[in-house]
Structure formats: structure tokens, C-alpha cells
Amino acid sequence: MISTQDASFLEPTAIEALLTDPTLRSLSRLSQYRIVFAVEVPSTHFIIGVARPMNQRFARRDDLGLSKREWSLLKRLSSPEKIQAFLNDIPINHEIGGETLLSVREVIRQRRAHCMEGALVAACALWLQGKPPLVMHLDCTASDYPHVVTLFQRGTSWGAISKVNGMSLRYRDPIYRTLRELAMSYFHEYCDKQGRKTLRSFSLPLDLRTIDPSLWITSSEAWETHDLLASRRHYALISSSQERSLSRRSTFERREAKAVQYPKVSGS
Predict the structure, then answer these.
(1) Who has greater pLDDT, 11 or 101?
(2) Which DSSP symbol is given to 216?
């Protein structure tokens, strides 16, 4: 057992993120945390407390492991609007050949991204500008796909950077007073192919400074980061009675929603 004398300054959200991480199998993966105390049982470790993560305001190139070219590219994305424009110009990742969770480096190299891959790039670019790299998970019913956005603030209002192929679940201007308000702005257009509204909850934001950069910036894939985000506490957006009374989108809306920026190439 390690001493618990430093436990008074632990951040509850950081502890929660670690305790709910389903991929956690060893203390060595958490290289940016100093373990304050832990209990060991056969075949695994249960972390009871950790110290604050590496959370310097401005990221440094050497700390992140970025090349000069990668650093220069991300550094030029000096505002949420520029980051969003960069993501819009990257073709969608249709995941031909199987599911992917590309790291920041791989998105830059391969020039393709889906929602969470784009969110990681946006978060990294914000960190380079001295803004916290926060991502939020939007969860839905089993008939649809979850979505991930990168959060930013102007004053006390929240906005979101978002990589999608369609028209609806995109950038949100920083006009929302709370994260719930921001999440609800996606509700009406968040639908499956049958026109059913599927968005159900939003997560606590995940500060990516709490995760080793080698797991989401310079690795080939970032599944550990995905699992950590998806396992965070979620808050319901609607009640069960409200869910039962939801209307479906009209035929016109469903037809218009099929428009995409990067169509899948026939035969691929």
C-alpha cells in the first residue's frame, strides 16, 4: 500500500475517469499520473487515488511527440473556425476494410477522419493554442451511431467542433449556456434511417491532458481513449415518457438528410 497523505487534492473527475476505464490493466499505462495510493489484487490493480494530471496550459512539441511538420500544421489552426474548416476539407473516413480509431498523427498522414478521429485533431489543435482539449460523447439508441464533439468556450458560452459527412451534426457556435443546451442542439437532426430521433445522453467532458499523448496523438490508433470517453458518466437528455411520444422526421427531411459531403465511392 502506498501512502495516502497527498489524497486531499485529488480531482474527483480525474479519479472517476480512471475508475471507470474498462481498458485499465496496469498502472504503467498512466504515465502522466503519480499514483497516490492503490490496492493490488491478483491479476489486476484497482486505483483508489491519483494525483493531478499533466495539465500545462500550452502543449509543447516535445511533450506531444509531434514532428515539426505536424506541429506547424496544427499550430496554424489558431481558432475553432479554422480547425473546423480544416476538418471539413479532410475526406470522411468510410472505414473501408474495418473500423478504425486513427490518432492525430494518422489523420494528418492519411487525410481522412470520422467523428472521433476529427475530435482528437481538434482537441490537439486547441491545446496548442492554450485551450483545454475537451471532448464530449453523445450517446444514442442501438439503431444509430454515437457521436463525439470537441468543446470550446468563449466567455461563459459553449460551442463545438464536429467532423461529420452529412449536414446536421456539425459545428456549433459558442452560444450555449450549458453542455446540456449544446447537446440538445443536436437532438432533432440526430436520427436513424427510419427517421426516429435517437440521441439520448451526453457525457462528462474528457480532458485529454489526462491521457498519455502516445495513446491518442502519436499512436497508430486510439481505442483506449475511445473506451475511456465512452465509459464516462452520461446524463439523460429526455425522460422515458418523452421518448415514447417522439415524432419521426418527415419524408422530406429524411430525403434531404441523405446529402453528404464525401460520397462513398461505388464498389469500395
Answers:
(1) 101
(2) T
